[in-house]
Design goal:
The complex is a heterodimer of chains A (336) and B (284). By secondary structure, chain A is an alpha+beta fold. Chain A is built from 8 helices and 19 strands. Chain A has 2 domains: 231 residues, 3-Layer(aba) Sandwich (Rossmann fold); 92 residues, OB fold (Dihydrolipoamide Acetyltransferase, E2P) (Beta Barrel), CATH 2.40.50. A 6-stranded mixed beta sheet of chain A has the order 6-7-8-3-9-10, sandwiched between helices. The longest helix of chain A has 18 residues. Chain B is an all-alpha fold and 284 residues long. Chain B contains 14 helices and 2 strands; from the N terminus they run αααββααααααααααα. Chain B starts with 5 loop residues before the first helix and ends with a helix. The chains are: A alpha+beta (336), B mainly alpha (284).
């Protein structure tokens, strides 16, 4: 096990004479045994960053340090990492056992050692009865577990996950998420997990890196990212529905943006801002109210038990004063 | 077909039966002729369609040569079949090996002029053996490879078709698999051996069948590069039996033809399962 450090990591893609910078100097320090999730919209560079850590992409600038070692120019196999791929990447002609054992065979470990490691991983992942099967005889969830097993048997210092849950259906995804959490609790291996799904990020992460167009927007615990978003991007990316960002509110200074989460707005007949209800959505326990205030759209999240206003109705709402967020209008950064 | 119509069924069967007859009848005729004696064949017009009683002695002569009942001395067929077998195997295995390696290079390595080299190989598809036969002959002759297995096989080994086929197959192998192998610590040749080869097994089998038959049926090229009887492949041997200076022993010709048909048929039958799988399957 080891800590993982990214120091001013840069990635350029060169096409002819033009260099396109996709990672703009990312720095982050991941503690030994920590589970960190990188989250961001597609194309933000999160997978590229992970692949640079894995050694599958070259590093244009900066350093990647695993433990005490700068691994910039090492082959993936020499970095003491294991990676779980989005499409599992199992060898189709090998049995489950051989898939997991392949890396160990290349390392020329003794047979008994390989047997023991694979057997243990299979036990942890409940694959013991499937060891003789070929990948095509397995379900998606089982293939995913084999892919994780292949990573576990290497006993790496860092686990890398590249959107491993995106090919599973919703139910299996929730289940596998719990398994990954349990696995991390049991093995305590430093893990870097890439996803575009904020629910995965919030539930799995001890700390999360929110990325946008090749830059780190925020690197903090899920609680902090949710309750104190560092920028308007984070505010609108994390949380569903996203935070309301209001530009013209009575009393708001013109250089500021006001952010307020939908659950921190209440119906207050008689006082507060006057809004026009557009549509309402019932989500079960809660109800979303989409409304307009002048030029601005905003969303309220109310308890389903509260009598909902009808579309077209005009209601008054108040934001909880301790839950207001202010951002700089010029650069979107959080104002203290 | 969703609907079964008796008339269509009948038509389909008639067409198929005619097809089988057209293909199978000459083979049957060959077989029948090979069991009769030379005298019987020359005496009976048209040829009797019933098997004769001289099968054993005719095949013995065809395989091992010797005096025939008609009194002429014929060369043995067995050594010629061995020459054919060796050349066909060398051509098939050589073609597959070289194509696999070159396709591997084209797909997984970046080297200068990669595309140019690929297209150069691809262009040779447009130049069949017959077109380049004179320069090829000159080269082989200058290298002193006439009357040798090298001369019989090497010029036929380079294959754009197989290279192209394997290249297309390798391109469909997901990149993640390559990356997984890199993470597992497999070097390029290890990846080739442990992952790519087993995955292309069915294509290799299909190509082997095609190339073996191609190699076995070579006629023009062996005709040019062999002058020594010991290096004649069997296809050439049949021709020599017919064009012999003396009396053509048709029964022996037919027996040799039957023998020459056997190995390719055997290869097809034995590898049929793999062959069909290789042509239709996308087992990835």
């Amino acid at each position: 096990m080891a800590a993982l450090s990214l120091r001013e990591v840069i990635k350029d893609y060169v096409q002819g004479k033009q260099a396109l910078r996709v990672i703009h100097g990312v720095s982050a320090h991941i503690e030994d045994g920590e589970f960190v999730v990188i989250v961001g919209p597609s194309g933000c560079g999160k997978s590229t960053l992970l692949r640079m850590v894995a050694g599958l992409e070259e590093i244009t600038g900066g350093d990647i340090v695993i433990g005490e070692r700068v691994v910039n120019s090492l082959e993936p196999a020499e970095r003491d990492i294991a990676m779980v791929f989005q499409n599992y990447a199992l060898y189709p002609h090998m049995s489950v056992f051989d898939n997991m054992a392949y890396g160990l065979k290349i390392q020329k470990l003794p047979k008994q050692e390989i047997q023991a490691r694979v057997a243990r991983a299979a036990e942890i992942l409940e694959l013991s009865t499937l060891l003789e099967r070929k990948p095509r005889q397995l379900s998606g969830g089982q293939r995913q577990r084999v892919a994780m097993g292949r990573a576990i048997v290497r006993q790496p210092r860092v686990f890398l996950f590249d959107e491993p849950l995106s090919n599973l259906d919703a139910k299996l995804r929730a289940q596998t998420r719990l398994e990954i959490q349990k696995l991390h609790a049991d093995l305590g291996i430093t893990s870097l997990f890439v996803t575009h799904d904020q629910v995965e990020a919030m539930t799995l992460a001890q700390r999360m890196i929110v990325m946008n167009s090749g830059r780190v927007e925020q690197f903090d615990t899920p609680e902090a990212v949710y309750s104190r978003p560092a920028s308007t991007f984070v505010a609108s990316f994390i949380g569903s529905p996203p935070m309301n960002l209001l530009h013209s509110v009575p009393g708001l200074e013109p250089e500021k943006i006001l952010g307020i989460r939908p659950e921190h707005l209440d119906l207050t007949p008689g006082v507060g801002w006057q809004v026009l209800v557009q549509t309402t959505e019932l989500l079960g326990a809660e109800r979303l109210i989409h409304a307009r205030m002048g030029q601005e759209n905003l969303t309220l999240r109310l308890d389903a038990a509260v009598t909902a206003p009808r579309p077209g109705e005009s209601v008054q709402i108040t934001a909880r004063p301790d839950k207001l967020h202010f951002f700089d209008r010029a650069n979107g950064q959080r104002l203290p | 077909m969703i609907e079964r119509r008796p008339l269509l069924d009948l038509l389909a069967h008639v067409v198929l039966i005619i097809g089988v007859a057209v293909v199978a009848f000459p083979v049957y005729l060959t077989l029948v002729a090979s069991t009769q004696s030379a005298q019987e064949i020359s005496a009976s017009r048209p040829l009797s369609l019933w098997p004769g009683s001289h099968a054993l002695e005719t095949y013995k002569v065809a395989l091992f040569g010797g005096e025939t009942s008609a009194g002429s001395k014929l060369p043995a067929g067995a050594p010629m079949m061995l020459v054919s077998l060796i050349s066909a195997l060398v051509i098939a295995v050589g073609k597959i090996t070289i194509s696999l390696l070159s396709a591997f290079a084209f797909v997984y390595f970046r080297f200068p002029l990669r595309m140019l080299v690929f297209w150069m190989i691809f262009v040779t598809l447009m130049l069949p053996v017959e077109v380049r036969i004179t320069p090829t002959y000159a080269v082989v002759s200058d290298l002193g490879m006439l009357n040798s297995y090298a001369g019989l096989t090497i010029p036929l080994i380079a294959s754009a078709t197989a290279t192209f086929l394997f290249r297309q197959f390798f391109l469909t192998v997901p990149d993640e698999l390559v990356e997984a192998a890199r993470v597992d610590g497999a070097g390029p040749m290890r990846f080739f051996k442990d992952v790519l080869l087993p995955m292309s097994a069915t294509s290799i089998a299909a190509l082997f069948v095609i190339q073996f038959i191609y190699g076995w049926n070579q006629y023009l090229w062996p005709l040019l590069v062999t002058t020594d009887e010991a290096m004649y492949p069997v296809v050439l041997g049949i021709k020599r039996l017919v064009a012999g200076e003396a009396y053509t022993e048709w029964n022996v010709v037919m027996a040799t033809a039957m023998l020459a048909m056997l190995p390719p048929a055997l290869v097809v039958v034995l590898m049929q399962k793999w062959f069909v799988k290789g042509l239709v399957d996308t087992d990835k």
